[in-house]
Amino acid sequence: MAIDYGYEPGVPGALFSNFYDSDSAVMVEDPSSEGGFAVFGKQGEEASGYKAKPSTGGIFMGIAIRNAVGLVKHKGDAVAVCRKGKIWVAVSGDAKKGQPAYVADDGTISATGTTAIGKFATNATKSNGIAVVELA
Length: 136
What we know:
mainly beta
């Protein structure tokens, strides 16, 4: 029996499989997104979520899981964060299956960057802009 998450696969923030580890955060800023964006925390702040890495004490938490009803997340909203597992993300540029996945300080996910987060489980091109990332 399949689980119905309330959204189609292949959209940023959709879980790729039922095997994942998650946490939650309260957004400190308005991410203006339905899911699939990088969530950063800040050392010394419990459960605070940022869409871009804070200039001091910023750490990558995971990828925001898409809300089943597709509501846009706002400042102060709680968001589920995929820390380990496979999840669809928006990708900047091309990426090949098996290539390392990185997140930049601005939250952009690509095949190059500053913080390694896992590897691409599918290909991405500039024309489609999405791929599955397997978070380590």
